[in-house]
Amino acid sequence: MSSLNERADRAGHAASAGTGTGGAAEAVADLDRLILLGIADDLRRRTRLNGAGAHEPGAVADDLEAARRHRWIAGHWLAALHEAGLVSRDPAGRYHDLRAPRRAELAAARARMEAARMALGYPPELAEMMLRSLRLLPGLLRDEIGVQALLYPDGEPATADAVYRDNVISRYLNAAAAEVVREAAGRATAPLRILELGAGIGATTADLLPVLAARPVEFYLFTDLSPFFLDTARRRFEAGFLRYALLDIAHDLPDQPGELDLVVAATMAHNAPHVGRMLDQVAALLAPGGRVLLVETVREHPQSLTSMPFALSPREGDGPPERHDGRAGTTRTYLRREEWLGALERSGLRVEVDLPRREDPLTALSQRLLVATR
């Protein structure tokens, strides 16, 4: 791997120093277990799985009074519970023998959650969101409560920052990404042209803009599907080269072939219906030597099961988000690391940065920085 990979890794670890990550795998497992037990307890109390017989996921969704667009989530949860050994599944895909947690087991899992949070350097807001999501499951499933109520309780951004910025893996990845941008700015012979896709709350943007402050930048186009995030960014950031635009990556990207020096997509590229097609479009936007910078989750951890699926449910229909790549026909949200590497290569993009390193304890958190060059 390139020397850029090494410099980005050092920058990431410098930004996340002070948090011991040696027990990261165990801490992640504890947080995952808490959510799985919480879901199992909710299904015990509110569905026919508390009795005898084997049942289709659709029947469980009926018991949960799930809104039409969220009905697929019941089957997604059951598959995760089955993988964790908390429910059995017969050859016909029906579920039975739910192993509901005892009260003492739930209490012990909540107690371990605090230790796990501290071990991972997570702020209290992140753990509070996890517990709040379990309490709000009925309203979330009925679509009476939106996922923004989890990320912005009382309209405050602290929880969203905890999820996307103020935690050890985000500090590492954002600092490593900033080092990549610093290197790109240092070798540029003309003002940079940058596009950020699905920028959201600007969690990664906030680390990239200071690197660019003293550099020649023609424009930094901050895009998102939601006007809410564009308005938030206008209030938060002051760089004169920033521009803003609504953009849905499920449709065509901007028509600027061969003009961009950098395309940033942090924790959002998996939302594309076909990742390969999206990367082909991104590659076409890049000037020779231009880069795409991805921050991506490469495994769905159970701790996100009570939040992320509700954000992904399509506005219409009763199935999972539409996918036309290797996830087609499944409820998978994320691509694995190997799938991303293959997709980048097939789009004519050479991977220069792939972090964290395989032996790094941070790999337990299953988020990565991937940077590739046209």
- Rg, alpha carbons: 21 Å
Content of β-strand: 5-15%
CATH architecture of the largest domain: 3-Layer(aba) Sandwich
Helix content: 40-55%
Number of self-contained structural domains = 2
Sum up the overall morphology in one term.
globular
Residue runs with pLDDT of under 50 for 5 or more positions: none
Spatial arrangement of strands, main beta sheet: 5-4-3-6-7-9-8
The biggest beta sheet reads: 7 strands, mixed
Number of strands: 9
At the first level of CATH, what is the class of the largest domain?
Alpha Beta
GO molecular function: methyltransferase activity
Organism: Nonomuraea indica
Protein name: Class I SAM-dependent methyltransferase
EC number: 2.1.1.-
Structural description of this entry:
The protein is an alpha/beta fold. It folds into 2 domains: 3-18 and 167-299 and 334-373, Rossmann fold; 24-119 and 122-164, no CATH class. It has 15 helices and 9 strands. It has helices spanning 3-15, 24-46, 57-63, 72-83, 103-119, 124-135, 137-141, 148-151, 158-164, 168-187, 205-212, 227-236, 275-285, 308-312, 337-346; strands spanning 88-89, 95-96, 192-197, 217-224, 242-246, 260-266, 286-297, 350-355, 367-373. A 7-stranded mixed beta sheet has the order 5-4-3-6-7-9-8, with helices on both faces. Strands 1-2 form a two-stranded antiparallel ribbon. Strand 4 (217-224), helix 12 and strand 5 form a beta-alpha-beta unit. Helix 1 crosses helix 10 (168-187), helix 2 packs antiparallel against helix 5 (103-119) and helix 6 crosses helix 9 (158-164). The longest helix has 23 residues, at 24-46. The radius of gyration is 21 Å and the shape is globular. 44% of the residues are buried. The mean pLDDT is 92. Residues 195-292 form the Methyltransferase type domain. InterPro entries: Methyltransf_12, Methyltransf_Superfamily, SAM-dependent_MTases_sf. Its EC number is 2.1.1.-. It comes from Nonomuraea indica. This is Class I SAM-dependent methyltransferase.
